[in-house]
Amino acid sequence: xxxxxxxxxxxxxxxxxxxxxxxxxxxxxxxxxxxxxxxxxxxxxxxxxxxxxxxxxxxxxxxxxxxxxxxxxxxxxx
Length: 78
Description:
By secondary structure, the chain is mainly alpha-helical. Helix content is 85%, strand content 0%. The chain has helices at 2-17, 22-44, 48-59, 63-77. 10% of the residues are buried.
């Protein structure tokens, strides 16, 4: 749990300090959504795609790209 907190705080400090380029800063929120969905699904034991999809479909513009991201992340988690 402390590594998740440390990673989130480190990313937050990098974003606040302006050390991350604009392209990465734009994808930071979807990456945090995937991290949150994977954390909750690992605790519950199921439903990664449902949780991740619920978050990413609101954050990303292209639904096909969103599904591709969910498939790759789901395979990586398994």
